[in-house]
Automatic annotation (TrEMBL):
Official protein name in the record: Membrane-bound lytic murein transglycosylase A
The entry's keywords: Membrane, Transmembrane, Transmembrane helix
Highest rank taxon of the organism: Bacteria
Span list, region Disordered: 36-82
Ranges of biased composition (kind: Low complexity): 52-73
Source organism (scientific name): Cupriavidus cauae
Transmembrane helix in keyword set: yes
Residues annotated as transmembrane: 12-33
């Protein structure tokens, strides 16, 4: 076998490149398949905290969102180890 590679030294590099290309394609296909099984939501639900700032500047935020935001600020102030 070593005589064959001595006669054709670039064949070993081509074989290695082929294996690397196969692994790259395999990993990409594998991760794309996982994304189709567990799709991410395209938008956050209406009651999600990230949508709290979506109210117009002159309008007050909804009560549930204001209470939730106040609760987050309170929990950050009393974080353990702070």
């Amino acid at each position: 076998m070593s005589e064959f590679f001595q006669d054709h030294p670039m064949l070993l590099f081509a074989l290695e490149a082929g294996v690397a290309l196969f692994l790259l394609i395999f990993i990409v296909v594998w991760t794309m398949g996982t994304a189709k099984k567990h799709p991410r939501p395209s938008r956050a639900p209406a009651d999600h905290p990230s949508r709290a700032s979506s109210a117009a500047p002159g309008q007050p935020a909804q009560a549930g969102q204001a209470n939730h935001a106040a609760g987050q600020a309170h929990s950050k102030d009393n974080a353990p180890g702070a």
